[in-house]
Amino acid sequence: MGPDGSLKIAGECSDKVGPMSLTFEMDPPVDAQLRDGLCTLWADVTNAGGAIGFVPPVTPDAIRQDLLTHLVSVDAGRTRMLIGRDEHGAIAAGAFLVLNTHRLKRHWCSVYTVMVHPSLQGRGHGRDLMSATEKAARGMEGITALRLTCRGGLGLEQFYASCGYREVGRLPGAIKVADGELRDDVTLWMDLA
Q1: Of 27, 47, 136, 174, which residue is most buried, by most CB within 10 angstroms?
Q2: Where would I find the H helices in 29-179?
Q3: pLDDT per position in the chain (193 positions), as tens?
Q4: pTM
């Protein structure tokens, strides 16, 4: 991690446009551009089928309150924010690491709202984001494990397993995405020690 909090992760890939890498930054300063960029990213990922707390269709304005809740927690020091920018400086990826306040659970944190822009998916950037998340957590004092949950039925468990997480629990039908459409809430764990 650099002195400015940035993490550079080797995430280059070849595609029709050419190689691209994302630059990851922990707890960047929050301004209107960052807020708007995260709202847009969150909406774009959701509308492309991403399972990050909403179901499509959704607008950035519908997401704004949830994002502001995350940002208040970041400001209070209860949550850490990791963002990934493309070579143009646009927000292209993000995740939140929520610290535990309970004295018996302070040694691990939860990873929430993991997202990579749909136009960049399938190019290794999701793995880059998960690697940057793990690296950031390893740099946090006292953190020895990560907990992550995902919506079942989308193949996400396999992706996270390939990133080093293991499934440790499943609540059948705990997520209601529509009337008559229930998904499992899957809990995954990564030991950092």
Answers
A1: 136
A2: 32-47, 60-75, 125-138, 156-162
A3: 454 555 544 443 333 344 579 999 999 999 999 999 999 999 999 999 999 999 999 999 999 999 999 999 999 999 999 999 999 999 999 999 999 999 999 999 999 999 999 999 999 999 999 999 999 999 999 999 999 999 999 999 999 999 999 999 999 999 999 999 999 999 999 999 8
A4: 0.90
What is the rounded CA–CA span in Å between residue 74 and residue 91? 17
Both tokens of 149, joined, read: 């949950």
Q: Which residues pair with 8 in a beta bridge?
A: 23
Give the whole-angstrom CA distance, residue 87 versus residue 89: 6
What one-letter code names the amino acid at 55?
Answer: V
Q: How far apart are CA 137 and CA 131, in angstroms?
A: 10
